[in-house]
Structure formats: structure tokens, C-alpha cells
Amino acid sequence: MSLNICTTPFKIDFTAFSLLLKNIYTRTFMKKFISYLLYLSLCFSYSQDSVLIKSKVANAITELSDFVAIPNDALNADDIDSNLFWLRKKFTERGFNSSILDTEGLPLFFAALPMDDSKPTILFYMHLDGQSVDPSKWDQPDPYKVVLKSKTEDGWKTESFSDLSDDINYDWRLFGRSTSDDKGPIVMFLNAIDILRKENVDIPYNVKVILDSEEEKSSAPLPKAVRTYKDLLKADFLVINDGPVHVSGKPTIVYGCRGITTLSLTTYGPIKPQHSGHYGNYAPNPGFQLAQLLATMKDAEGKVLIEGYYDGITLDEATLEILRSVPDNAEEINSNLAISTPEKVGSFYQEALQYPSLNIRGLGSAWIGDQARTIVPATATAELDLRLVPESDGNHLKALVKDHIKKQGYHVMSSVPTKEERLKYDHIVTVQEGSVTDAFRTDLNNPFGKSIVKILENKFGEKPVQIRIMGGTVPISPFINELKIPAFIVPMVNPDNNQHSPNENLKIGQIAYGIETFYSLLSTKM
Asked: Which end of the chain is more exposed for a tag (fewer CB within 10 A), N or C?
């Protein structure tokens, strides 16, 4: 089944057709006549398939609106239970057997089609949860009620869903929490299954699905859960459907993602804030201490100065060639970020992502703005996140940061210092450590990956963008570590979807893209 063979409108040129009939006795025109018939046949096939896809897109819009209407805040167990109930009903309707898998946190959702031991197994990972929302920041009354909008010169115009009945404008968008991240891909998957069943396609795989319910709060229970349900989750390879396609909008396959860990650093001045007139120039200022400490960690070009931070990372020419093949536009990226010059960790964007990062994600000390006071603060705090690559161990990097702080003359603690400790040490830093989510990266030459590239290329007529490792984090390492299988991210949604932000949205054309992609992956033997 091909869903995009003929890209022109299905119209018969009757003048050309009659000329062909009048001249059918000549060999030249006979060839043209046969070619024309083939063209008509292909266009008729396209027209049929286009109607089918559009009908499934329409159904997906209805299902997604229904799904999004169920709040999915991972901090609220009742929300997750309501979503699990909806999922169980929808997957059962498609012939799946499903289970709710208990964990030390919120449950996971698991579903599988009937198994055939002679077939390889593909495991799909997506997530059903979302972060909390602040409705006041959204351009609609309720983030959980999907709104249809079209792009105008002045912004976004609300459209009526009834206007989709005659035709579906693939440039219009659905606005609502989790439309893109990550309920949209789940609904695309379900509607691709509908087409496979309608066409009586014999799927050449065993199909398993695992849906995370705490992805947006770090998936802390996942590593133990994967160990517990290892036999149930057993598969030959893993496909993750989370995150956006490349900014170019082209079909995309990602071979890995960075991990993450965090550190919180607090420096100390007087035990209570003091009047800057009385104690300025006398009481040590924790803000300056912290600023000076942080400044020792990076040079002016953004490279980490902590000894050993980049150890173990090498990029050969073949790898660099893949990185350079990603169609990033540095000028456009810089313009979107409104920056003159990027940091120099890598010589271009994709190269920069191959290294662990050290980021200040928040700074705080005393009061600012209208609340500013003329005081010497008592404390100053920096929140750091460290994005990890497979060559870097999160606990090792945190140890390197702490060793570096000690070398700057600081006494490092894991708790708030007592008065006695304050009097004993000139410089004190409290360091609080976050948990570690490991990075993963599948080899670019993996045969399953090559097959996915070929499937996407055949389906959409262009070579997909291949990204060695993306900058963000998806908690996939437990599957890699426990199941010992390769993993690939095949994103479905538009790059400007505002995930994790107000006015999250999903372009309707991406729903069609997702349905076609899932159909192709599940109907083609790798």
C-alpha cells in the first residue's frame, strides 16, 4: 500500500485522452497511452489511499481531542488512572492484550498483539503523562480542551472543527496539553493499526507497546520496573516515538539521546542577611563567592575547564560526516536564539551535542527587582544540570565538579553548615546531588537502523535526517541496559510544537505523517 504515489490532484485531461485514442495506432502514441493509463491507475490508487488516510486523520483528531480532555499531570495519581482506563479501552478495540504494570511509583501501561514465536519483536515506547499546566499562560480557556487554529499574519485564528468535515487542512493545528508530547503519537499508532487491520496486513513482527506514566518527572521507577518485567518486555529492538522531527520538517531518525543529572550549589555569607551599610566590605558576600566559583568552571568560549570532564570522547571523520549531513542552518539557529556567537564546545551544533554539558539552570540570592534590599545576603544558590553522553558517567562527572570546587579552596558539605562549621571554614559550599538518567546511543551501522532509514526514504521519497544523539533526555537507558537491544527514536511531531510550554500544538499534517510512518514500519519486514 502506497499513500503518496501521485502528488498532483486527481483530474483526467480528457482532451489529451481523446488525442491518444485517435492516434493509438502509432507506436509512439501507444506507449504514451499505456503510460497515461498507468498514471491514471496510480492516481486512482493515491486518491483511494488519500481518502483513507484523511478519514483516519479525521478519526485521530476526534480521538486525540477525547484523550487530551483527560488531564494527565504526573503529580496526580487519579489523572494517570483515568488515562490508563482510556488506553486500555482503545488498545483492546484494536485487538491488543493489555496490562497495568505496578511500579514503586505510578503504573506503566503495556499492550501486545498476539505473539508468534517465528517473528521478531518490536517494542514501542511512548508516554502518557504531562507536566502541570498554568491555564493563565495559555491562549485558550482550558489547555485540556483541544482548540483548532490556523496561522495568520497576525498570529493564530481559532477555527471550527465543523470546517474539517469537507476537507482537512494539513497546515492547521490542534492546541492542547500533550497534543504533541506525547499523546499525539499514541493516537497516530492506534490509527495506523486500524489501517493495517482494514487491509488485512500480516504484520511481520510481534508488536509490544510500553507507555510511561512518569516520563515528565524523570521516570524514577522505570529502571527497577524494567528489571521486574524484563521477560514481558523482551524484544529485538526498541522504537521511541517522542520528541519532534528535525527543524527542516524532514523524516528523522535519532540514534541516541543525552542523559542528565543535577547539582545544587549553595555558598554562605553572614548567618542572617545584614545591612550593606553596616557590613558591606566586611561580611563575605555569598553572591560574589558563587559567581567567582562558577566562573572557574568554564572559559570565555563555553568550554568546561574541569579536569577530565570531556575524557573518552573521540569523533572520527566518518562520524563527523554524519553530523555534518544534518541540515542545520547555523544562521537561522542563532537568529532564533538571538545570539551573536555560540559557544565553542563543538565547531557546529551537532558536534556540540556529542559532549557533556555543564549548565546553570537557575541562580538565586536574596531579593531582586522591586523587592531588592540593601543587604549582604546570607546565601546564594546555583542550580546546575549536566547533560550526559554515553562516554560520560553522571556520578563520575559530579565527583569531578566537587573535586574542582575543593581545589578552589572550598569546604564541601552535603548539608547546611552549623555555626561552628561556619566559624571554622572560610569558604563553604553545600552540594546536593540529583539522580542520574544515563545517555544511550545506538551504532549508526546497526542493521535495524539502516532498515528504518530505507523504509522512511522509500515512503517519503527523500533520505531522512540521521541524528547521532539529540540534546534532550528520554529515559530509555533502562531498556538498553536490561534488555540489551538497540533503540531508535523516530519522532512524529512538528519541531515548533511548544512542548512543555503554554500553547503546545500539533500540526495536522504531522498526524498524517505519523500514521503513514507507523504503517510503513509495521508493514515492512526489516
From this structure: N
